[in-house]
Amino acid sequence: MSQDKVVIAEALNGNVRIRIASTTNLVEKARQVHDCFPTSCAALGRVLTANAIMASELKDENARCVSTVNGRGPAGTIVAQANGKLEVRGFIGDPSLYYLNQETQKLDVGRIVGTNGTLTVTKDLGLKEPFTGVVELQSGEIGEDYAYYFAISEQIPSLVSVGVLVNPDYSVRAAGGLVIQLLPNASEEVIEKVEAIRKNMKPISTYIDEGKTPEEIIHTLFQDANVLDEREIQWHCDCSKDHFARALTLIQKEEIEAMIEEDHGAEVTCQYCGNQYQFNEEELKEILEKAKHVENRKRLTQE
């Protein structure tokens, strides 16, 4: 299977920016890590893909883009995180959902996500404060919700299509995403051309399933497209025992004391990748001392 990637292009005399990603490997890895059933897999895969496309705009390898979706549906919270190297990870609250839309017989992502909630996008560019945009969910189908986000939070008219096709054995057959954006001062003629493309295009996952590369999809939609860049996408979780040790210093010291006295240790599981980290009594005592130091420092700062 070919390497996942996002390809960036422009078309219609530079008035349209296009980003198309193939993410079949990424979504299959997420499915395996979280043991996802088809509808959960499709929902998580769509968010992972959309977030990866957004992260392809990051200039700094250490910058991060995080998408959080919660429509108060059965899926619970869906989180996707990607850095400037397009290393992507994510999770879904309930990975065991398999709902079909009775009319279309397609995976009913909107039903499990729900619409009584928000899509939150946070971009940490290494500045003093991260940028955060929050919009109400429109359909829970993810593509329309990101299009609404671009329109409201970034004031960019955008067409967004994300899709995941799942095999009968629950493995991912094809996954990908597309973002087409009108640049400022685009003419009515350009807008009409993009609208005509929107009406005639197939679902993005269908193009991927047909074996088309992102470049081929771009040139299928826009004959005059000029490819500007392409970047690889991969699943990667950077969790570590040191990371969780630092995180434990931030919880209440009474909780750490309880772990020592009652459990004589602790086990922490990474919600992104499922890796487990064991802490024995001695390690927890060291963490407790650091936690007390952090608490004292906070108290001195407040005084």
Properties at a glance:
6-stranded mixed sheet; 303 residues; 10 helices; 5-stranded antiparallel sheet; CBS domain Like; alpha+beta; 2 domains
Q: Kindly report how far apart the N and C termini lie.
A: 59 Å
The SSE string, one letter per element, is EEHHEEEHEEHEEHHHEEHHEEH
Strand order of the largest sheet: 7-6-3-4-5-11
Shape category: globular
For the record, what is the CATH homologous superfamily label of the largest domain? Hsp33 domain
CATH T-level topology of the largest domain: Hsp33 domain
User: What integer value in Å does the Rg equal?
Assistant: 22 Å
Q: Helicity, in percent?
A: 25-40%
Taking the sheet with the most strands, its summary is: 6 strands, mixed
Structural class: alpha+beta
CATH domain class name of the largest domain:
Alpha Beta
The number of distinct helices, counting runs of at least 4 residues, comes to 10
